[in-house]
Amino acid sequence: MSGRTRDLSCPERTCVGCRERAAKHDLLRVTAVEGVCVPDPRGTLPGRGAHLHPRPGCLDLALRRRAFPRAFRLPGPLDTAAVQRYVEALPRVAEMSEH
Ligand SMILES: [Zn+2]
């Protein structure tokens, strides 16, 4: 982290993969449109959202625990190919170090 004092105006969300809390802007919002999970990096799509670290590991965890259907209150299974493509297309960011 930057070492600045915590910015209280910055909301936190829980990653549906690793279940760690993180600043909302560090997480990818995912929402469901007609049974398909779609990445919503700008947070502009309506409806329920799930938040996820945009990392393959967290996506994998979220898929294994069926976090998306639960987050969206949908029966599932949901098509998550678009989210997988989005996460895989991102440049690999070094794991955030926690100090
Ligand atoms: Zn995570």
UniProtKB/TrEMBL annotation:
The record's Gene3D superfamilies line, in alphabetical order, gives:
YlxR-like
* Pfam families, sorted: YlxR
Which InterPro entries does this entry report, sorted A to Z?
YlxR, YlxR-like_sf, YlxR_dom
Query: Matching SUPFAM superfamilies, A to Z?
Result: YlxR-like (SSF64376)
* Highest taxon, organism lineage: Bacteria
**Ranges for domain YlxR:** 13-77
Task: Indicate what this protein is called per its UniProt record.
Answer: YlxR family protein
The organism encoding this protein is Streptacidiphilus cavernicola
Lineage at the top is:
Bacteria, Bacillati, Actinomycetota, Actinomycetes, Kitasatosporales
